[in-house]
Amino acid sequence: MLEVHEINTFYGNAHVLFGVSLRVSAGECVSLLGRNGAGKTTTLRSIMGLTAPRSGTIRFKAENIHRQVPYRIARSGIALVPEDRRIFPVLTVEENLRLGQKKGSGPAQWSLERVYEVFPKLKTLRDRSGGNLSGGEQQMLTIARALMGNPDLVMLDEPTEGLAPIVVEELVHAIARLKQEAMTVLLVEQNINVALALADRCYVLDHGSVVAEGTADDIRADEKLRAELLGV
Question: Which CATH code for domain 2-230?
Answer without folding.
Answer: 3.40.50.300
